[in-house]
């Protein structure tokens, strides 16, 4: 299974928190390749795909940050209308809920979706059966 390992940080939703987290990563010479930030009132979750996940985890943990690893799928799709629908429909057909999803255009012809689901292994199998390419951690760091 090609899952990617994200760093997930739980932090208070106040000015300077993101700057503190990103400063700690920069000081450890860790490159952020993808990021998303979501808040729910007083707290938020910052998620990162980084070039050195273990080092990022330890750097943040040593500095009192609430951090954990999170597995997700990186799905390569064509950059065209309906690409997200293809992924969503394949998962829905197998009763797999999309917990969180984000994406970006990687180049002129392809986009990459970061898909978070409860059962990553099962979702990976379903997407591969639908002939969708799942990127490995190493491929994501080069994308």
Tell me what the structure shows.
With 143 residues, the chain is of the alpha+beta class. The chain has 5 helices and 7 strands. Strands 1, 2, 3, 4, 5, 6 and 7 form a 7-stranded antiparallel β-sheet that branches. Strand 5 (100-105) and strand 6 (110-116) form a beta hairpin. The chain is globular.
Name the shape in a single word: globular
What characterizes the major β-sheet?
7 strands, antiparallel
Radius of gyration: 16 Å
CATH class of the largest domain equals Alpha Beta
Question: Which H/E pattern describes the elements?
Answer: EHEEHEHEEHEH
Number of strands: 7
Instruction: Give me the CATH superfamily of the largest domain.
Output: ACT domain
Helix/strand-derived category reads alpha+beta
CATH topology of the largest domain: Alpha-Beta Plaits
Q: Give the amount of beta strand, in percent.
A: 35-45%
The CATH architecture of the largest domain can be named as 2-Layer Sandwich
Number of helices: 5
What is the typical, i.e. mean, pLDDT? 93
Features:
about 140 residues; alpha+beta; VC0802-like; Alpha-Beta Plaits; 2 domains; seven-stranded antiparallel β-sheet; about 35% helix; globular
Task: Set out the fold topology.
Layout: E1 4-12, H1 17-27, E2 32-40, E3 43-50, H2 53-62, E4 66-78, H3 83-93, E5 100-105, E6 110-116, H4 120-129, E7 133-135, H5 137-142
Antiparallel strand pairs: 1-3, 1-4, 2-3, 4-6, 4-7, 5-6
Summarize this entry quickly.
With 143 residues, the protein is an alpha+beta fold. The protein has five helices and seven strands; from the N terminus they run βαββαβαββαβα. Helix content is 34%, strand content 38%.
């Amino acid at each position: 299974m090609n899952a990617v390992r994200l760093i997930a940080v739980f932090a208070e939703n106040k000015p300077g928190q993101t700057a503190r987290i990103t400063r700690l990563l920069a000081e450890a010479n860790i490159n952020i390749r993808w990021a998303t930030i979501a808040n729910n009132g007083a707290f938020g979750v910052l998620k990162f795909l980084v070039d050195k996940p273990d080092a990022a985890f330890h750097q943040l943990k040593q500095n009192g940050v609430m951090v954990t690893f999170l597995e997700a799928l990186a799905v390569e799709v064509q950059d065209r209308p309906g690409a997200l629908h293809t992924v969503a429909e394949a998962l829905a057909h197998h009763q797999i809920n999309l917990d969180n999803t984000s994406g970006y255009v990687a180049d002129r012809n392809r986009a990459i979706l970061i898909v978070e689901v409860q059962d990553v292994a099962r979702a990976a199998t379903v997407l591969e059966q639908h002939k969708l390419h799942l990127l490995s951690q190493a491929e994501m760091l080069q994308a």
